[in-house]
């Protein structure tokens, strides 16, 4: 059930510490993505975005002088942008719009706006059963999942550290990465970093940076006449599972099981068909749980499966080839940058980190505290 929709343009905004406003970063990313596609704002009649306010799409449209016939500003955390791909593809195929921009921007590092306290409304189960214990949001929740996983399957922090070590190795090949030039990361470096929430150290946690990105979607037929080779939307799936941890029966199983199953079924593909994967790496444990849920390896097998350099440059399974949220960029909601890197890999534009012959890419977003999950499969135009 591959769609007749393609990504025609993809770009980042400035990254790191930018000093720009949120809307400024959004506009920058959108402008660059449209330039990449060979289009202009006059071509845009669909907009999906988050990160500004509850009225993100309205505010971005207003800022850019757009009057889109279709919008989406669903807030689902880091997975929202993979969800937007599905909604945009459906809208284009239904004739609601012809050209959709998916965008995001955040100046959280420059503005010092990141907080570990979280926002919990008084009437929620979290306020009654979780907030009294003072968890760091969202780190403590992911730490609980990591603690449970290591206990259940006999894993070690040394094996978990491989996720961060591999991400740094990829970042050293990406001049846009925040940790580019920082030097390699060792397992001992990860274990010796300051402990934040047991068993996760600062090196197990994503960066806090400014940044953003955008992708442009249109019909496959139209994309074939534009500036860049089109990247086809092959399949997608999503699940929303929980807000609080008190609602989770098993911390080691996520909604990526169902979102991945649906995406592969729609695309007519299997995990064995994926040449390069961009998996949300808010924390090292996020990657481990997601790889298992998507079917790349069995339950409890991920730590051994990634060992031996499998997910590092030159390994058998290229993963988070930009350096990921752990070493490249994490502006609060990272999902749009998963799509940007997937598109660039399929177009063969990644230089030293390019995966040879990549024809099918997976992008998987995770939002909240393992709360929302969305999988997108992309492919070259055959």
TrEMBL record:
CDD domains: SCP-x_thiolase. This is Acetyl-CoA acetyltransferase. NCBIfam families: PRK06158.1. Residues 237-379 form the Thiolase C-terminal domain. It holds the Pfam family Thiolase_C_1. It comes from Sphaerisporangium siamense. InterPro entries: Thiolase, Thiolase-like, Thiolase_C_2. Keywords: Transferase. It comes from the Bacteria. One of its GO terms (molecular function) is acyltransferase activity, transferring groups other than amino-acyl groups.
């Amino acid at each position: 059930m591959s769609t007749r929709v393609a990504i025609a343009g993809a770009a980042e905004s400035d990254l790191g510490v930018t000093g720009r406003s949120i809307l400024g970063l959004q506009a920058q990313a959108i402008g660059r993505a449209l330039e990449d596609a060979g289009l202009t704002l006059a071509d845009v009649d669909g907009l999906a975005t988050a990160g500004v306010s509850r009225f993100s799409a309205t505010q971005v449209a207003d800022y850019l002088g757009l009057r889109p016939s279709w919008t989406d500003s669903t807030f689902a955390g880091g997975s929202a942008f993979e969800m937007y791909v599905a909604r945009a593809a459906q809208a284009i195929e239904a004739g609601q719009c012809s050209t959709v921009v998916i965008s995001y921007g955040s100046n959280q590092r420059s503005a010092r706006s990141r907080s570990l306290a979280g926002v919990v409304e008084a009437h929620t189960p979290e306020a009654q059963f979780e907030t009294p214990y003072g968890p760091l949001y969202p780190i403590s929740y992911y730490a609980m999942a990591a603690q449970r996983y290591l206990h259940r399957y006999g894993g070690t922090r040394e094996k978990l550290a491989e996720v961060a070590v591999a991400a740094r190795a990829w970042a050293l090949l990406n001049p846009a990465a925040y940790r580019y030039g920082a030097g390699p990361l060792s397992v001992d470096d990860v274990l010796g970093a300051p402990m934040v929430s047991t068993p996760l150290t600062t090196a197990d946690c994503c960066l806090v940076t400014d940044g953003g990105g955008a992708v442009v979607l249109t019909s496959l037929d139209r994309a074939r006449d534009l500036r860049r080779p089109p990247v086809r939307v092959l399949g997608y799936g999503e699940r929303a599972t929980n807000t609080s941890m008190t609602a989770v029966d098993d911390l080691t199983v996520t909604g990526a099981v169902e979102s991945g199953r649906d995406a592969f079924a729609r695309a007519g593909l299997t995990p064995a068909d994926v040449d390069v994967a961009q998996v949300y790496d808010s924390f090292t444990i996020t990657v481990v749980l997601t790889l298992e849920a998507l079917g790349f390896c069995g339950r409890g097998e991920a730590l051994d499966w990634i060992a031996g350099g499998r997910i590092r440059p030159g390994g058998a399974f290229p993963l988070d080839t930009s350096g990921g949220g752990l070493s490249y960029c994490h502006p609060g909601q990272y999902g749009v940058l998963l799509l940007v890197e997937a598109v660039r890999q399929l177009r063969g534009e990644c230089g030293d980190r390019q995966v040879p012959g990549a024809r099918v890419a997976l992008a998987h977003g995770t939002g909240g505290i393992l709360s929302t999950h969305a999988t997108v499969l992309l492919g070259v135009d055959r």
